[in-house]
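Z., the sequence and structure:
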Amino acid sequence: MDVLPENSTVVRDVTENITKPTTGSNMLDLTADSQNVELFNEKNEMGVYCSPEGSLIAKTTSTTTKLTTTDGSITTLTSTTFSPLKIQYFASFHQICVVSALLPLVTLLSCFVSALVFQYDEVHETHCRVYNIVPSISAITGVSPQRYFWRLSIAFHLGPRLPIAFIYKNYYRSLLEQLERRAPHQVPITNLLITLILILNCIEIISLGGVTYISNRENYPIHEKIFITFMICSLCHMLATIKLNEILHDDHGELPPSQRESIKWKKILFAISILSTIGLLIFFAKHRFYCHDMAFSWFAFFEYVIAVANMLFHFTIIWDFPSQHMLIIQGSRTNIEQMFNPPKKRD
């Protein structure tokens, strides 16, 4: 305990140590008087302040020191630091995921209907020149003007997909602490599985972009190879995700209903994708090597089922993250990390 010299003066500093924004930064000034700070600290143990407009948040750091003078009196010195952060963008993560997942589905349906109505002969043209009734996805999205709508929708779809892939990685990593207490021997393989899921997801996203912007009419060999890559990575990503959820949540009774629903539908959609892939390969061979009537239509049908199952598989994110939000914040990286990732308490 520190001892002050006799007749020393101690000043209680509460509001002088306030971090203010740089001039011209367009950030709001965050001010508080001594009474408000004390009331705030009593009510909010997290030390986070929100402005009435909701556009400014700040982290407070309070340091309290008790000092004893030589005459035995005790004086308390309190210093409070405000680190303001301005919210530039705030949106519901749930809504972003819904729009991102449904946009290609709605666009695909629009392309299918419009191509059948206005370009029936063009989208049914194949090298075999046999009777077919269902055009492939490549056919309906490779003609004009449908190709422009499809490419535009995929561009908007791919934008959130890459951040979502890394959000999932961080989410799964946050569950490793529970797994370490329950089954520490599974942590290394689970860590590798999380990394594998991230890689497969990124390759799937890139392949989707490639198969969209390199149509079969422009370069069929490249289009075919990218499509095969997309199919393999998509199925492996589904399987790895299901396996990871089984490891992390061996007792599904502990999960909330939304996550149990998510895991259930992931398994159903993966089974549908596997069965449809088998059917797609069978009828592709019949069309490619034997030119059977309707073989290409059945190939196209299974292609649509796989595409819709893939979209719905990623749509299950609405159950994995039902109440999260996306923020874009102006402020120093140190303050942001301290606010949203506070140091763990030692046992």
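The chain has two domains: 3-86+330-340, 92-328. Residues 1-46 have pLDDT under 50 and may be disordered.

Let me know what you think.
H.
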